[in-house]
Write a structure and sequence with these properties.
The chain has seven helices and no strands. It is mostly helical. The chain has a single domain, classed as Phosphate transport system protein phou homolog 2, domain 2 (Methane Monooxygenase Hydroxylase, Chain G, domain 1, Up-down Bundle). Helix 1 packs parallel to helix 4, helix 5 packs antiparallel against helix 6 and helix 5 runs parallel beside helix 7.
């Protein structure tokens, strides 16, 4: 019985790794769709919505079953509780990638990004995917040392977000107010994706060490809305 229980705990961690990989791939493809006005690629990302939701629900079912039937204690309890937090972050990462893909679809065949901000979003996409890839490694290997590096990596995204706002508010911006508002929200999707990647890493630190370094503390009402 105990061996089967430990196997399910391991499976729960690997399930999180697969969710993280899916979110990373979704953001990579959504960014490519955004940069290249690729409708087919945008649609393929949007089509992941149900799969991502089902993966979260499946992980939650396993975690709640383990809580109810096995009464885990100490480190095992941290694994189960952390899993519930982590899959919520991962589901949100997938949803944010889908928001990016929807932005690409909404404007098709017209390009979403004016030339002055294209390089910023290209770098945002690279940083977002890199953070998600590191979060996947943290999840699968329970690598707390790597987990602690994600905070510094997230600073790159924050800097890009500030650069985007500087471009949108510049006197030389000539593309209108409505596109600037849309682009600021699009930048928010990337920034929040990065924040959730960091939150996953923080959860793993808690899982392994019991040290509470804080998760994602942004109130739900401040999340980027569905559009």
């Amino acid at each position: 019985m105990r061996q089967a229980y430990q196997t399910r705990l391991i499976d729960l961690g690997e399930h999180g790794g697969r969710m993280c990989r899916l979110a990373s791939d979704a953001m990579r493809d959504a960014t490519a769709a955004l940069l290249n006005s690729d409708l087919a690629l945008a649609e393929s990302v949007i089509g992941l919505d149900l799969e991502i939701d089902e993966m979260r629900a499946s992980a939650e079912d396993v975690a709640l079953e383990l809580l109810a039937l096995q009464a885990p204690v100490a480190s095992d309890l941290r694994v189960v509780v952390s899993a519930l937090w982590i899959v919520a972050d991962l589901q949100r990462m997938g949803a944010l990638a889908i928001h990016v893909a929807k932005a690409a679809r909404r404007r098709h065949p017209a390009p979403v990004l004016p030339e002055p901000v294209r390089p910023i979003f290209e770098r945002m996409g690279t940083v977002a995917v890199d953070l998600a890839d590191k979060a996947e490694k943290v999840l699968l290997n329970r690598d707390t040392e790597l987990a602690r590096t994600l905070e510094a990596d997230d600073d790159q995204m924050d800097a890009l977000h500030r650069e985007l706002f500087a471009a949108l508010l510049s006197p030389t911006w000539s593309h209108g107010v409505a596109p600037a508002v849309d682009l600021s929200l699009l930048g928010r999707f990337y920034e929040r994706f990065a924040d959730h990647s960091v939150a996953v890493a923080r959860r793993v630190i808690f899982l392994v060490t019991g040290e509470n370094v804080g998760g994602d503390t942004t109130p739900a009402g401040l999340e980027a809305p569905e559009r």
